[in-house]
Design a protein that fits this description.
seven-stranded mixed beta sheet, 12 strands, about 10% strand, five-stranded parallel beta sheet, single chain, alpha/beta, 16 helices, about 625 residues
Length: about 625
């Protein structure tokens, strides 16, 4: 009896333990299902926020593409992507706000993004559209488009940075929540496996609950897959928008290339003939007039180059030609160029310690870029000076073979808190509300130029006593010193090269511009050992090249019948002309064009306006080879 009772008790005990285990397993399974559902919810929520963030970026791209396209081409069809981008930005912004209510950091970023977008539209988009609508019947100047386009870049950069931070945050959350889903699935699977071993001993309700939860999980997975498919479609749309933006950028580059050619072509004749006049015997008054022509023409050429620098700065590319530069000559030229501005403002510009009566130092720099930097500093010193003030340019030798060029003014000075803002693009320290002209790009661009020349730029200022901007560069040996250090063997080789110049050679010049052709004819009258053949059409030039087999071909890029690059390809494809060296001569000075022609087989690429001495040097080297 006792044994039977014990067996019953053990049975009840075993059943109780079994029931307790099943209850614990059921509770664990329920908890895991709940956490799995929560993990799925937050995973889906994260992908929704990512989608809205990318939609905001797509809206910004559409607005920028439409505005730039309309400004450059005047085609009103470009206003469609602009309107679409504005609607997309507003829609995605509202949805992103509602989805990130629980995330203060993302909410703050959204507020910053909206502020940047509103400023961007007010300062960049709206002026760009207003300017273009007002000039639909006439050409928009490149300076207008460049000036307004430069305003928008900092805002687009900051908006991209904010969107990048938001995407990075959501991507991190997505990865973490994906791991949570995987872990919850694994835990749920283990629990269900253990529970399945006891499923025959449990009530049918447990199986019903399990089936219901499984169906719910399958539904969530299907919804998640549909959401992923939608996100992929959104990414494809974003890629298409990016491609459109790249095409618009290519159109801008083509526009700059064409404008460069159209502006440089007339400058070639002006500077070329002026250089030839400079080489002749002239009266002092005539020589002074020629010097003024050359100085003004070269200054205008510098302005044209600055227009091209806009695209190069955006692309992060700066073409520099470091060489020993005489500081006194640069300072004198800067003083001459800024004197009219100084006289108009009643400002005295003076140089101390940088002229030949001092040490007459040389620095390693790109001459044009150094003049550009000093022009900016001296012009600023004049514009922001007091009435009847002074601007002083001085030089100071520093340790480790460095030279500092200082530009000091007697203006109101700069507050210490504003010093750090001086070299920030578009930061004018309140000058935008005054009548003083400027864009706020000069100092930022000057810093990039100086640093590219392995130099440094800075400022020292005392409120009420004026400011001193300085540029530090490495000291270089003068060309005279370099000549004195030449070895005897180098001088012997140079004399031998000069003796070789007397050999007779033939040059074919293919050019449709009569003034450019006359310029080369005038240059070669000083070199009778070179016989000139000319052709004003590409097809005629190809025939002459086969018939006369010239020693060198000078080829223009823009011809009336055949493009210069096509003429080059035909010369290289013909066995009779494939070895004749070809030197390209064109007003198109964009780096991409130069690289393309050199890669196609051109021996050298010269730009208009033509530097006569560089031309003669290249001609000598080409004929010698």
């Amino acid at each position: 009896m006792l044994k039977g009772q014990n067996d019953v008790n053990r049975l009840y005990f075993g059943f109780g333990v079994l029931l307790a285990i099943l209850l614990i397993l059921a509770w664990v399974a329920a908890v895991n299902f709940s956490r799995l559902a929560e993990a799925h919810y937050w995973d889906t929520h994260t992908y929704e926020v990512l989608g809205e963030t990318r939609g905001l970026g797509e809206g910004i791209i559409n607005m920028d593409t439409g505005a730039r396209g309309f400004a450059i081409t005047g085609d009103k069809r470009f206003l469609q992507p602009l309107t679409k981008g504005q609607a997309e930005f507003s829609r995605y912004f509202k949805r992103a706000q509602s989805l990130t209510v629980d995330n203060p950091v993302q909410q703050q970023r959204l507020r910053q993004l909206d502020e940047q977008q509103q400023q961007w539209r007010r300062i960049y988009i709206e002026p760009l559209l207003t300017m273009r609508r007002a000039t639909l019947k006439r050409a928009v100047t490149l300076e207008d488009i460049s000036r307004i386009a430069a305003r928008g870049k900092p805002y687009t950069d900051r908006m991209r940075a904010i969107l990048g931070d938001m995407e990075q945050t959501e991507a991190t959350l997505a990865a973490r929540r994906a791991r949570e889903v995987t872990a919850r699935r694994s835990q749920t699977g283990i629990t269900l496996t253990i529970g399945g071993a006891f499923s025959l001993l449990m009530l049918s309700g447990l199986g019903t609950s399990l089936a219901r939860n499984t169906r719910q999980l399958a539904g969530n997975n299907a919804a998640l897959e549909a959401e992923i498919a939608e996100r992929r479609q959104a990414e494809e749309a974003l890629q298409q928008a990016k491609a459109e933006a790249e095409r618009a950028n290519a159109a801008k580059s083509e526009f700059l290339s064409r404008m460069s050619h159209e502006l440089r072509t007339p400058m070639n004749a002006i500077l070329g003939f002026a250089q030839l006049l400079e080489m002749d015997e002239l009266q002092p008054e005539q020589r002074d007039g020629v010097q003024h022509i050359l100085k003004g023409g070269r200054h205008l050429l510098d302005l044209i180059n600055e227009v091209l620098d806009i695209s190069r700065v955006e692309a992060g590319q700066l073409s520099l030609s470091p060489e020993p530069v005489q500081v006194s000559a640069v300072v004198r030229q800067v003083c001459d160029l800024t004197r009219p501005l100084a006289d108009e403002a009643h400002i005295e510009v003076q140089a101390q310690g940088c002229l030949p009566e001092a040490s007459d130092p040389y620095v390693m720099a790109d001459r044009q870029r150094l003049i550009q930097v000093l022009l900016n500093l001296v012009s600023n010193a004049i514009k922001y000076n007091r009435a009847n003030g002074t601007v002083t340019i001085s030089c100071k030798e520093l340790p480790e073979a460095r030279l500092r060029i200082e530009v000091a003014d007697t203006g109101p000075g700069i507050a210490p808190d504003d010093i750090s803002k001086l070299f920030v693009p578009f930061e004018r320290l309140g000058a935008a509300q005054t009548t003083i002209e400027g864009t706020g790009l000069g100092l930022a661009f000057s810093r990039r130029l100086v640093e590219a020349m392995d130099g440094a730029i800075g400022v020292e200022s005392t409120p009420g006593r004026g400011s001193t901007f300085w540029v530090e560069l490495a000291v270089a040996a003068s060309p005279v010193e370099q000549l004195e250090t030449m070895t005897v063997e180098q001088r012997r080789l140079r004399n031998e090269d000069r003796r070789n110049e007397v050999k007779a050679h033939t040059m074919l010049y293919i050019e449709d511009n009569l003034s450019n052709l006359r310029l080369i004819e005038r240059i070669l009258t000083r070199h009778p050992q070179i016989r000139l053949l000319s052709a004003m059409q590409g097809s005629v030039g190809l025939d002459l090249a086969q018939q006369h087999q010239p020693d060198v071909i000078l080829l223009d890029l823009h011809l009336p019948d055949i493009a210069g690059d096509r003429v080059l390809r035909q010369l290289r494809a013909n066995p009779r002309t494939q070895d004749i060296p070809v030197v390209m001569l064109s007003a198109d000075a964009t780096p991409r064009q130069i690289e393309r022609l050199l890669a196609s087989g051109a021996r050298a690429y010269l730009t208009k306006p033509l530097d006569v001495r560089v031309f003669l040097k290249v001609l000598k080297e080409t004929v010698k080879d």
